[in-house]
Design goal:
The protein is an alpha+beta fold. Helix content is 64%, strand content 17%. The chain is built from 3 helices and 2 strands; from the N terminus they run αββαα. The protein has helices at residues 2-8, 43-97, 102-111; strands spanning 15-23, 26-35. β1 and β2 form a beta hairpin. α2 (43-97) packs antiparallel against α3 (102-111). The protein is rod-shaped and about 90 Å long.
């Protein structure tokens, strides 16, 4: 009871503005602005919350884009590695079939 009387009750919420935050056209969360004193919410309060929600959404979309860019770089590196392995494998196959041209195949693989 003491906890309620001393900490919770004095901070009771009198007014609230809830603004949805959309990231990539999906609801990501809600920006909640709570007033502990009686406050008549007006258009300026709503506008301010809307702008904050847009900034948060923009930050999240930027973070996701950076993450996607890093993922793309990682995939490109893997693809390059696999491509080199395929070239070396083809070179070995040709070398097994015709040992006479083995040195030529390795040079072509290096150039490729």
């Amino acid at each position: 009871m003491e906890l309620y009387e001393n900490y919770i009750k004095p901070r009771e919420i009198k007014s609230v503005i809830d603004t949805p935050i959309f990231v990539e056209n999906e609801l990501w969360g809600i920006l909640k602005c709570e007033y502990t004193k009686k406050h008549d919410i007006d258009r300026q309060d709503e506008w301010f919350n809307h702008i904050l929600a847009l900034y948060i959404a923009n930050l999240m979309e930027t973070a996701l884009a950076i993450e996607a860019k890093e993922e793309t770089k990682n995939y490109a590196k893997k693809l390059e590695k696999y491509f080199e392995e395929v070239i070396l494998l083809l070179s070995r196959i040709v070398e097994e079939r015709d040992p006479y041209t083995a040195g030529h195949q390795k040079k072509v693989a290096l150039i490729a």
